[in-house]
Amino acid sequence: MNPKKYLDRVPVGSELAVACQLACPGCRMPEGLEHEYGCTFEECPGCKKILIGCHCNCLSPADSEKIIKALHDQFANLAEAIKMVTAAGIKPDQNTSYLIHAAMQYLYENVPIAVQADLKRGFHESHPGLVPLLQDESGYGYYTAEQLSLALQIPLAEVNEKIDAMVEAGQGIRFGDGICLQKVN
Ligand SMILES: [Zn+2]
Ligand SMILES: [Zn+2]
User: Fold this and answer.
1) What's the pLDDT tens digit per position in 118-137?
2) Ligand 1 centre and the CA of 108: distance in Å?
3) Residue 143 lies in a domain
């Protein structure tokens, strides 16, 4: 299998479909620089559509996580995030867009405990073999990178790369109530 190829972000002014001259009308970054993470005017280097809503997932994990983090931080309440996820619908044959990824993450973090249990069950149903291997003193269970690699059927190196990127972006890596992941080599 070939290593996955990541594409570079499209700087302000180099868009094909969106017109950003001199400065971005959204994030105000000048021509030639990269948009602020999560800017709604940034173009996808793959499909040329709006990056945060497209399904290419073609940026490096580090860039992807920073965009997801920025979008995540823009959600002000649960209703907004639910509306976003509901409106998008879930198509199993497509990658999740950065925006939906951020909304899902916001949901996981902010839903009431009772709903968290449902989400957790859903996660277990889609990945039945996955049982946390480790537990910290506050009772949180941790999955290892190896487990996630098997469950999600992606190479271990890619899992570790994603975790590194999440940690670097200062992003919480807890999913719902008591589901966490951790890099264990
Ligand atoms: Zn911008
Ligand atoms: Zn795209």
Assistant:
1) 666 666 666 666 566 555 56
2) 28
3) yes
Cα separation values, 42 from 50, 53, 102, 139, 180, Å: 6, 10, 16, 41, 31
What secondary structure does DSSP assign to 24-73, as a single string? -TTT-PBTTSPPPTT-TTPBPTTTSSBGGG-S---S-HHHHHHHHHHHHT
Strand-strand pairing, 134-135 and 141-144: antiparallel
CA of 136 to the centre of ligand 2 (A): 39
103 lies in a domain? Answer: no
Task: Name the domain count of the chain.
Answer: 1
**Residue 9 alpha carbon to ligand 2 centre in Å:** 11
Q: Whole-angstrom Cα distance, residue 5 to residue 91?
A: 24
Taking the CA of 18 as reference, the closest ligand is 1
Ligand nearest to the CA of 50: 2
Q: Is 125 part of any domain?
A: yes
Confidence check: pLDDT of 17 > 80:
no
What does the angle CA 96 – CA 27 – CA 164 come to, to the nearest 5 degrees? 45
| 121 falls within a domain | yes
What are the residues whose beta carbons fall under 8 Å from the beta carbon of 114, sequence distance 6 or more? Answer: none
What the block records as the tokens of 61 is 């994990």
Measure the CA–CA gap between 168 and 175, rounded to whole angstroms: 17
